[in-house]
């Protein structure tokens, strides 16, 4: 990971346009190419960012980040106070909380509750961006990537989208469908998932734990 502390301004051109006025900010460049600008407030959420895959063009006082969708983030560097790089682990090291872990275990054992005749091939299937929770095959033999969350939000859809982009490059898997599973899926996440062809499944964990009448709602 590369970290820059710099006085900078930025403009974004894409689905919407935005401008950041000059200020001292933290610029993060991650191993997968993601570029994010942070202020000294706001927890983990950046002020602006560009997800991978993208291209970073470094000029003397300007960075230009573009992606295949035609979006562009331009960062004007006025003064650089710190520029350091460190090797960090790229795998997801955080253990799933109890609910997510239990959901993963139960759905791996009973994938047909997500989709009829679905078969789980592997848990924590590795991609070069991290592991997708379940790799499954459907009744026609097609690959299905399943990402599981306690609460389904936009970040989870974005995460699954990145995994799907990588998995589509593997000729042994492509084409790959996505399923986003959670106990509750937020409306914005559902809209985003459906716009990308990702199925959403809301899981009633209490019923999945062992009651005979297991009902999942597929939207």
TrEMBL record:
This chain's source organism reads: Egicoccus halophilus
Q: Which UniProt keywords apply?
A: Cytoplasm, DNA-binding, Endonuclease, Hydrolase, Nuclease
Checking CDD domains in the record gives:
NucS-like (cd22341)
Q: Give GO terms: molecular function aspect only.
A: DNA binding; endonuclease activity; hydrolase activity
Gene3D superfamilies for the chain: 2.70.180.20, 3.40.1350.10
Q: Which InterPro entries match?
A: Endonuclease_NucS, NucS_C, NucS_N, NucS_N_sf, tRNA_endonuc-like_dom_sf
Determine the domain of life of the protein's source: Bacteria
Tell me what this protein is called: Endonuclease NucS
One Pfam family name is NucS_N
The protein's gene is named nucS
Q: Which residues form the Endonuclease NucS C-terminal domain?
A: 99-204
Location of the Endonuclease NucS N-terminal PH-like domain: 2-90
